[in-house]
Amino acid sequence: MLPVTSPPTDGREAGFTIIEVLIALALVAVSLVAIGSLMATNARGVRSLESHVALMQAARSVMTAGIPPRGELQPGTSAGKTDDYRWTVEVSPLGGGWTVPDSDVAWIPELVRVRVISAGGAVSDIRTVRLMPRSSK
Questions:
Q1: 39's torsion region: left (phi>0), alpha (psi -120 to 50) or beta?
Q2: Higher per-residue pLDDT: 37 or 73
Q3: Residue with the larger pLDDT of the pair 9 and 106
Q4: 89 and 61 in contact (C-beta within 8 Å)?
Q5: What pLDDT is attached to residue 30?
């Protein structure tokens, strides 16, 4: 049979000191704070991305439903509200001097500006050019 040994009674080998325990707790606390900060930053980024995607979806729906077909599109401004988004569609001549008075060109370029503003103040401003039938003046 093996002899039974008693645990060491020397104070140095008896266990952890209070300083070692406090240092370990401080390291755990710092690690938890860093992880919490990272999670909060990630959550803010996700919310920002979600609001941006919602704004782009609203702009897309305005472009498909708010802009009339080419034959009905007239210079001027129209505005409206969809859900929590305000929008305006502006149609204006593109640049200056695009029209030649005595030419037989059937189409002229028009600038179409779609501006969508969310309730939080985020803005999407999209500009495009459409060829419009030339008015017969």
A1: alpha
A2: 37
A3: 106
A4: no
A5: 96
Residue 34 counted as domain residue: yes
Say what the alpha-carbon torsion angle 129, 60, 126, 92 is, to the nearest 10 degrees: 50
Rg, the chain, Cα only: 34
Tell me the residue range of the domain where 41 lies: 15-133
Rounded Cα distance, 111 and 1, in Å: 99
List of residues 6+ apart from 76 with CB closer than 8 A = 90, 91
Q: How many CB atoms lie within 10 A of CB 108?
A: 17
Count how many Cα atoms sit within 13 Å of the Cα of residue 1 in the half-sphere of its side chain. 3
Average pLDDT over residues 45-59: 91
Whether 22 is covered by a domain: the verdict is yes
Residue 56 has what pLDDT?
92
How far apart, in Å, do the first and last CA atoms of the chain sit?
118
* Domain-located, residue 3: no
Which of left, alpha, beta for 47 (phi over 0: left; psi -120 to 50: alpha)? alpha
Q: How many domains does the chain have?
A: 1
Tell me the whole-structure pTM to 2 decimals. 0.63
